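Sequence in, structure out. Go.
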Amino acid sequence: MHPALGLVIPLPLEAIALLGRGAARLRGEEPVFRSRARDGTELVSAISGVGCGNARSAARRLVESGGATALAVLGVSGGIAPGLGAGFLVVGDGVVEETGDACPPIRADGPCAEFALASLAAGGFAACRGGIVTAAHAVLSPESKRSLHERTGALAVDMESAGVGRVAAATGLPFFALRSICDPSGRGVPPDLPGFLGDDGRVRPGVLLRNLRTRPSLLVDLLRAGKDLAVALSSLRGGWGVLERQGLPSRLASGR
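Output:
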């Protein structure tokens, strides 16, 4: 099988940051976006939308229709460990699901995670390697983040990595996860902010305007969140660029 790295990217803004403006045409069940990494490896990518189920469906599509020989999930996430500021990169060495069920953790490709961390450090990025927890709902308050970190030992929380990891485990493919922190552990996120995004990861303008009319102070939260998101996306783009140049996609896709 021809080596190809499958990228599951939850949000359109993340896809544009990682793949360029051409990725903006990705929609739902349309054919996967094909491109080349800087090391020449074929990339097959899909925007999954928010949530573990959507990520699982996108990963299956990349394997079944895209011919992916390895799977990776890339995007922004919440920080739940102290000291990880906006733009801090987390290389996942494993993913756990916060579902209440006794699901075994999903292990990422260890040598590739180690290689990625060393490459990011050499490139001057603030990065660490550790666990990622996938939650069914957004984790917003500092108290909830601290509790989740204490229960799981994870560094970051998202809503998609476990879905991709389960498909990788079921198909015997290498798995890699890279997350950029967009809201640090000590900072709370207003509970109405996540509602501005649909399951496809796109802004719902009607909901946004309605909430701004009823709570104008929300604008301050939006500006702060937007600034942190910009930092996180810039770090994600730069970090992934380093990993492409250092040959991580080839290592993953070829199973080396």
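Check: The two ends are 14 Å apart (CA to CA). The helical segments are 12-19, 52-64, 110-122, 142-152, 161-171, 205-214, 218-245, 248-254.
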